Amino acid sequence: MSVDEALSRTLELAVLVNEDMERGLAADGLTRSRAHLLWELHQHGPVPQRTLAQAMGVSARHVTGIVDALVETGFVTREPHPTDRRATLVTPTAHGRSTAAALVRGRHELALALFAHMPPELFDAYVHALDAVLARFRELAGPDR
Q1: Are 63 and 56 in contact (CB under 8 A)?
Q2: Which of 91, 96, 101, 116 could connect to 75 by a Cys-Cys bridge, CB 3.0–4.6 Å?
Q3: How many distinct structural domains can be found in the chain?
Q4: Separation of alpha carbons 107 and 12, rounded Å
């Protein structure tokens, strides 16, 4: 196999994973940005919007739009911060928490479907190769990545 064929297969995998993720998120009424915000809340609990913006690597204005959409669709609420009158906490609703938990389960189920059938030595080699490719890509992309 040539390096070009290896890259083509890598890109094909990236496209397939992306398309599967987009379909799953759309079925839940989410975009990638909205799901990312729910994921952050799932990991860290209620947090101020500025914390979400930092965690997501986006502007505070961008997070405001994402939160507005998630409030409108019942995934999160804005609550007063208990110790800082100037801040509000973004808090997942029961619907937001159950959706985030379903995303985690779906991710795990996909991992099982893709990798559970592999013999351990093939799986270990695959992970090792991915680690090497990711490290090289980060090196080529530079420090801003």
Answers
A1: yes
A2: 96
A3: 1
A4: 19
